[in-house]
Amino acid sequence: MLKMRCIKHLLSIFMAIWMMAALSSCSCGDENKKTGATSEPAATTPSPGSMEQTPAEIQPKEEPGQLVISSSADTGADLYASWPLIISANLWRKIPVPDDQGQTPGVSPVTLKAKSGSWREALVLEVRNAAGDIVAWPFHPVNQPDESLSLGVEDSANAYWWLDPSETQALPEGKYAVHVSFKPDMMDGLPAYIALDRFYLTIEKEPKPLDPALESAKQYQMADFFLFKGDAKAAGERVDKLLAADPENIGGLSLKSKLLASEGKNLEAINVLGDALTIHYRKYPNADPPLGLLHQRSEVLKALAPKPVKVDGSSPSN
Amino acid sequence: MRLFLMCIALIFSASWAFCAAPNDDKVTLTINATCVADSTLTDPHGLSMKDKITAILSERAVYRIVAVEGGLLDLELINHSNTVKISGGGTYKDPIESRSWTYIAGKPATNNVQGGVSIDTLHGTGKIFIEDFMAAIGAKASPEDVQAGSAYGEAGMTFGTATGESFPSQTLFESNESFLKGLYFTFDPKSKHISAGGQANYKLTRKSEDGYYIGSGKLNVSYQVQSGLPPAGPMVVLIPKGDYKKWLPRAKGPNTPGNAITFGIELRVPKGEKAKEKTAQFEIELLDTSRHPGTTMNSPWTGVDPDLKILRVNNPALLKISPDGQTAKTAKGLKSATITVSSFDGAAMGKLSVLARIDGEDTVLTAQLDSHVTEVSIPYDLDGNTIADAWEEANDVLGKPLDTDEDAEPQGDRNNGDGLTLWEEYRGFLEDGKYIRTDPKKKDLFICDLIGGRSKKGINRFAALTKLDVHHSLTVDELNYTRIINRNRSEDSPHVVDQHGLLMEKFTKDKEDYDGWAVEAPDARGVLDDLGTPKSTTRIILAHNLSDKITKNLGKGVTKTYEYFTPVVAHELLHACNVRHHGEVDIKVYWKSKTVDGKKVLFEYERIEDCSQPEKGYPIKAYIGEDSNSKYNPEDPLWDTPFPIVLGVYCGQHSGNEDCVMRYDISQAAFSGGGGRFCLFWEGQEPVGQGLCTSSDGTGVNDPGRKPGSRYYHAAKGNCADQICVNDLYH
């Protein structure tokens, strides 16, 4: 009786938070009061140690500005056999993370040098099938003569390999894991640890017959592939074929513009890109601007800077 | 309103004794405890009150030792005697009246047993317990019509604070750690007798904010414990091989364990018995094993097999293992064995129990762990909340509800959490087949990146700018067509919201959409909704033909080379985390020359269809960069065909901080006033942002104080860092 009166009294007086704390403490106390024998834990406990088993996948600690090799299929993660395949490896460095004091460690450029030949020759492209077995595909590396590579945090470098459509036609269907690494004994200056990003490539049989959209996509990829290999003539044939069947194919128009610019036909190249932009705006009115097309046009415009005139109409040189 | 000032003092003293006549099966516990509380209240209106109460407990209790399990004594109370004396009183005075009172016991002074004890003979430790004996007896004020009782209430509060074991984590009152330690005692486990004792003291002081009320309380307990040697029989002890309390379950595949934990099993015989004469067959059982769907929150497989199993491969010596891996038997005639339990789920939880059938006898003994529980929790989970205590302690979340989602970093738009509950972050995820747990204090974002290569550098930039924990190596199966990253759950799994991951891909085979887009997801009505958190972005498509770097002519002979693909990746990912453009009002126009009075004049048109309409369009001057003294020649053949232009405007996509990745950099023209356009194709190109802005202020070309003028001024939106939200519960 008195206790009830007391609690009512306190409630009327104390701040709410104070009372809540008091009630909380009483509740905790009640829960923990026991009489007689219980299975209460002992006051002393075994000394701690480490039982978390070390997983095999734990990677070494990364350094500030960690060097990474990220691989990819420039022709897409899904490939139809008999379509061209381009694999790339992108070498780059991670942005240093500030420490607990908020200080970002400075990172110097790292210089990688091949013991002989190009640094790209020291790269190994490895493909594994779903069973984890390494498979041998007849890749063609794109060789460039540079012996060494200097990479700062804002830099990156690429290496490429390709397979012709006739070569991909022979590849078994399935899912493959692809990654690129260095042969350490062929390089100087390699850090102790290089992070590797692998990617998965799925190979399927080409559907037959191809629907018009896929036919356009194939022609586009073939044209892009020939352009990648430096065969402008074959690329041009594919582009013409593509645009004949699909005149509003934006990718096709972009390639057409590239081919025209490579021939010095800059004004025509600009006009083709103008068409591509117009089509893009019409097809995707709410999309972000087509950065690729706009910058492609900027590059062509550099070679086509029209001569200025003074506001009064005279030439500035006059 | 009248203010009360109260002062409470509470002194609580007790003494315990734990006694047992040597060589019998009894335990005797003697306790003496005193609790004193007082309070004073004085307010400026002339009110004053003083109150004080004292309670003294004297108790003797005798227990019979019924059994010993794993060293723990099972005690039965066989008799006790106690007295509780209540005394004290108080006065009350205000300008009108004054009263006084005294306290007496509310019930007969002898009552139920108020103390208790647990004893661990294996380790030589024990602990006493004490009830709130003042509350058990109660107190009466005489006369009854006075406003007494504040000291009595304070006594209860002091008692609860002193004995509340979860209370030390709070900071409102004095720590009771020392008091609780005082309730523990030790003795030599090899001794034939137990004779131990101790004391525990606690003091509470309180004061109201206005200073009118002051209270204090004291609780003093002293005790003695005495016992003879407890009877003991054979028992089984589980001995962890490694640090059981730190072990956490891990996951991998549906048929591949993530990790395992091993225990030794030992048959221990009482002192004095010949160990060689006792052997046993051990029967091992996993109880209450969890069966969460899948092995992690996002594993591609969703089966509900037991999450802990006894596998033959890890237990070659076992005689028999059940097909579901939940029970096993050893051979007979063993004094010891080992058992390895494998984990198939990041949140695997179960109990390990072992029976020993002593050969030649019918005795069945329940196995014990050193920590004195009859069933061993795997992993160690003293609070029984299904999350391993080691993870809770390491992440400072012990005691929090399982559906808590309070990740605070990065702050972003101030919505805490990342859509993943504490339990979901503990259970973990698969990322390219590797098991990961996530940080419950840091917001996570999951990405299935089908582009790879240089997109990784962009993701790294995004992570550095946002400070999110980005997990970007999910496979298609791990992300799943639903993109729900915490989809593997049962109805009672702690869950707040279906949290989505992101899909990044190149142009698809049947489309030529090869520019940077964050594609909106249809809402529940099938309507394309505005961009928001990851649930709103079906996929992110990135151009394959964007260059890694780009060189810009910034004007006045200054050129600068920027990373390009990298900030584009960051830009699109930020869209999927609720970050908008700096503005949305830039416009697309067409420029084309038209002959007027026999002279070519450059015209601007709103639509391409208008370019061929004589009455449409309006004449403009296209200045070179931002130099309004020279312009481009309308006679140039460049303007003979419609030329699409992105015209940046004030507070549009190009406004705000020029070094932000969310700001556009592709404007080809800007208003110069008087029908003129600053033409930025060749001169005065837009810089490319690499950072993330923290305000909407215009900087660089948009600086309001810039000459010849701010190009696009402050951002309509801006402050991109404060827009970041990954939690699908919001937006």
Structural notes for this entry:
The complex is a heterodimer of chains A (about 325) and B (about 725). Chain A contains eight helices and 14 strands. By secondary structure, chain A is of the alpha+beta class. A five-stranded mixed β-sheet of chain A has the order 7-9-3-1-12. A five-stranded mixed β-sheet of chain A has the order 2-13-10-5-6, with no helix packed on it. In chain A, strands 8-4-11 form a three-stranded antiparallel β-sheet, with no helix packed on it. Chain A is globular. The N and C termini of chain A lie far apart (about 110 Å). Chain B has eight helices and 39 strands. In chain B, helix 6 (about 455-465) packs across helix 8 (about 565-575). Chains A and B meet through helix 1, helix 2, strand 1, strand 3 and helix 4 of A and strand 4, strand 6, strand 7, strand 8 and helix 2 of B.
Task: Categorize the overall geometry of chain A.
Answer: globular
User: Which regions of chain B contain 5 or more consecutive residues with pLDDT less than 50?
Assistant: 1-23, 166-170, 369-373, 522-528
By secondary-structure content and strand pairing, the structural class of chain A works out as alpha+beta
What is the radius of gyration of chain A computed over CA atoms, rounded to a whole number of angstroms? 33 Å
Number of helices of chain A: 8
Secondary structure: helix percent of chain A:
25-40%
Distance between the termini of chain A: 108 Å
Give the strand tally of chain A. Answer: 14
Kindly name the structural category of chain B.
mainly beta
Oligomer: heterodimer
Average residue-wise pLDDT of chain A:
80
Question: Can you summarize the main beta sheet of chain B?
Answer: 8 strands, mixed
Quickly count the helices of chain B: 8
Query: Taking Cα atoms only, what radius of gyration of chain B do you get, to the nearest Å?
Result: 38 Å
What fraction of residues of chain B sit in β-strands?
Answer: 35-45%
| Gross geometry of chain B | elongated
Query: Using DSSP, what is the number of strands of chain B?
Result: 39
Greatest interface (CB-CB under 8 A), with counts per chain: A-B, 110 and 142 residues
